[in-house]
Design a protein that fits this description.
By secondary structure, the protein is of the alpha+beta class. It has one domain. The protein is built from 3 helices and 9 strands; from the N terminus they run βαβαβββββββα. The two termini are 28 Å apart. It is globular, with a radius of gyration of 18 Å. The strands form 4 sheets. The chain has a 3-stranded antiparallel β-sheet with strand order 3-4-9.
Length: 166
């Protein structure tokens, strides 16, 4: 691109993301804001590529955590990823946050820890990927960058599990 496009410019930061958890068979969650936001009793449901050293990338599904960050690149936290949030609204400079979830690791929040994530899927990913033409939208990653990140996040049995982590 040799010049900036004329506004308005088409763009998208990301599509849908979701977190999936499993409760123990006898667990209950009272219908209060504090209890709904206390995920310590729940086990995160992560895609297989996040929980095993040999899992294969797969398209996101509603039964596993999927974070689309940025557009059309799905990330997954590692197994030690934990989620923290305030149980009540927080106000800063006359703006009130109604929801603010943060990914930490081992129960510790940033900036004291840097949680690890890895690419788990990108549309068009295949083991025999060939370069596609760039999308005309101005994005931080093009389609090739997103697809290229997925196989780099899959580790072989002998490799360090955190290889390819962001």
């Amino acid at each position: 691109m040799t010049s900036w496009p004329t506004p308005p410019v088409n763009g998208a930061l990301a599509g849908f993301s979701w977190l999936a958890f499993e409760l123990a068979g006898t667990a209950t969650v009272p219908f209060t804001m504090a209890e709904l936001l206390d995920w310590s009793k729940a086990r995160p449901e992560l895609v297989p590529v996040a929980t095993s050293r040999s899992g294969a990338p797969a398209a996101p599904d509603p039964l596993h955590t999927a974070l689309e960050i940025p557009w059309q690149l799905w990330l997954t936290p590692f197994e030690d990823g934990t989620w923290q949030h305030w149980a009540s609204p927080v106000t800063h400079n006359q703006l009130t946050e109604l929801w603010h979830t943060r990914l930490g690791a081992g129960g510790v929040e940033p900036p004291f820890v840097t949680p690890q994530v890895k690419a788990s899927w990108a549309p068009g990913y295949s083991a025999t990927f060939t370069r596609l033409p760039d999308n005309p939208w101005l994005m931080s990653l093009n389609e090739y960058n997103r697809i290229e990140a997925v196989p780099k996040a899959v580790v072989d049995e002998g490799d360090d599990q955190r290889e390819g982590a962001a």
